[in-house]
């Protein structure tokens, strides 16, 4: 097993509004041959980057070690696992093109994917992720030419996933008055992992990806808490339980794996159940598993999805 680090100077990210680096590192883990192999694009959750999947964790396996073990056990064969750094000043990524934060979808699909497909002679490509990464995998996987998709606890049904957070973050956001000022304050803190700060930062990040203009438009008024209906409608248009309807024909023939904990901390089991029901109604074959657990510390589920992706990509 080998790890190669690439650096892509992205034209799509060069002039992003937050001046985040446009030189993006990508780690590619290969288990054996680098010719005519399946590839898997891994998208990280919020407040993370895919590169952290290579870090040592004394209580769990890194994704690199997990892939190595599955390969040694002969549960998977030769493949390329692609881990791009897509971290932003707003704490994470939803893998969309956004005027307010940057063209990350275009970076991935128009620069990164063509480069690695050619370099590693990838014959079939899958995409996987958890949480925000699961959202990204579902968004990109239902829109582009991926042969297989694996989503873990994907952001879906925004009424349950996000709406409960709004009243919790209003007081925190009111301390600074504007999203930009809050971001500056956040990065100045030494204890920035506090739950109130993280929740508020995530809502700002989601606002940048989901709101319709080049400004970071919050979906509620800071003074009263009233929902800003036009902005909220735009958020909902980007909810998988809404956008998948118009993409259902693109999902046919793809291998799709979905799982979620039955006690997810963000109530994501409901949105994923809805997606499962939609796929059943459309008679689109897929695997859906609901396990006993919450949102955190569920990387052991990758044992299932990585084998699923490899087996289905190898057969394409």
TrEMBL record:
EC identifiers of the protein: 3.1.2.12
Keyword Disulfide bond: no
Record GO cellular component, one term: cytosol
Molecular function GO labels: carboxylic ester hydrolase activity; S-formylglutathione hydrolase activity
Enzyme class: hydrolase
Gene3D superfamilies named among the record's database cross-references: alpha/beta hydrolase
Keywords per UniProt: Hydrolase, Serine esterase
This protein's record includes keyword Methyltransferase: no
GO biological process, one term: formaldehyde catabolic process
Similarity remark: Belongs to the esterase D family.
Full protein name: S-formylglutathione hydrolase
Organism: Metallosphaera prunae
């Amino acid at each position: 097993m080998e790890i190669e680090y690439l650096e892509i100077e992205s034209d799509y990210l060069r002039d992003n509004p937050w001046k985040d680096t446009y030189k993006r590192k990508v780690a590619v883990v290969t288990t054996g041959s680098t010719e005519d192999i399946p590839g898997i694009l891994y998208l990280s959750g919020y407040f993370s980057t895919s590169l952290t999947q290579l870090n040592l964790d004394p209580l769990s396996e890194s994704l690199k070690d997990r892939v190595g073990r599955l390969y040694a056990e002969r549960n998977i064969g030769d493949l390329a696992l692609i881990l791009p750094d897509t971290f932003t000043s707003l704490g994470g990524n939803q893998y969309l093109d956004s005027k307010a934060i940057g063209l990350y979808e275009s970076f991935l699909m128009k620069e990164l994917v063509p480069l690695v497909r050619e370099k590693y002679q990838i014959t079939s490509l899958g995409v996987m992720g958890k949480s925000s990464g699961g959202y990204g995998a579902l968004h990109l996987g239902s829109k582009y030419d991926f042969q297989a998709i694996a989503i873990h606890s994907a952001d879906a049904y925004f009424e349950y996933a996000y709406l409960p957070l709004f009243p919790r973050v209003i007081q925190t956001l009111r301390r600074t008055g504007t999203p930009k000022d809050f971001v500056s304050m956040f990065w100045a803190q030494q204890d920035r992992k506090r739950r109130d700060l993280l929740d508020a930062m995530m809502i700002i990040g989601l606002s940048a990806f989901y709101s319709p203009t080049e400004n970071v438009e919050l979906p509620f008024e800071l003074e009263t808490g009233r929902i800003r209906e036009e902005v909220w409608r735009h958020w909902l248009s980007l909810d998988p339980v809404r956008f998948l309807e118009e993409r259902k024909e693109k999902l046919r023939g793809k291998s799709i794996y979905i799982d979620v904990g039955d006690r997810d901390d963000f109530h994501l089991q409901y949105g994923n159940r809805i997606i499962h029901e939609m796929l059943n109604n459309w008679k689109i074959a897929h695997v859906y598993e609901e396990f006993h657990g919450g949102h955190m510390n569920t990387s052991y589920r990758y044992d299932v999805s990585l084998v699923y992706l490899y087996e289905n990509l190898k057969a394409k």
